[in-house]
Amino acid sequence: MAYIDGFVIAIPKANKQKFIDHAQMADGMFMEMGATRILECWGEDVPDGTTTDFRKAVKAAEDEDVIFSWIEWPDKETRDKAYAIMMDPDNKDPRMDMEKNPMPFDGKRMIYGGFAPVVTMEK
User: Fold this and answer.
1) DSSP string of 56-108?
2) Measured between alpha carbons, how far is 87 from 77 in angstroms, rounded to an integer?
3) Residue 99 contacts by C-beta under 8 Å, 6 or more apart in sequence?
4) 32 and 82 in contact (C-beta within 8 Å)?
């Protein structure tokens, strides 16, 4: 059964192209490791809520936009194996070098999690 990793990120508007470049590099790695589909979505209609909303959740500043992304995996086992390889301190893949490939956003404000689909509809 498919498994989904979801992400919500605040990114400086000035870093849009840096984010796209970073995402293409990282997403290529996810695809090599078994991901079946990845969507990186730049917020265009992200309203302020009364109690909570996407912007509040990631403490987005006025000069930041919200990104909503997800990675689809064939199953949780494939995802877990990929993450174990990527997070291995002995992994010498240069794409994992944060000094050479820094994230163009504050990773401490990123919200992420893994999800098991319970309803799927497709056309």
Assistant:
1) HHTT--TTEEEEEEEEEES-HHHHHHHHHHHH-TT---GGG-TTTS--SS-GG
2) 15
3) none
4) no
Residue 42 domain boundaries: 11-115
For the chain, what is the domain count? 1
Query: What is the C-alpha separation between 86 and 7, in angstroms, rounded?
Result: 17
* Tokens of residue 53, six digits: 């909303």
Q: Considering the entire predicted model, what is its pTM?
A: 0.90
Task: Tell me the CA distances in angstroms from 30 to 21, 53, 69, 74, 107, one per residue in order.
Answer: 15, 28, 13, 12, 18
Is residue 123 situated within a structural domain? no
The model's pLDDT over 27-56, given as tens digits with 9 standing for 90+, comes to 999 999 999 999 999 999 999 999 999 999
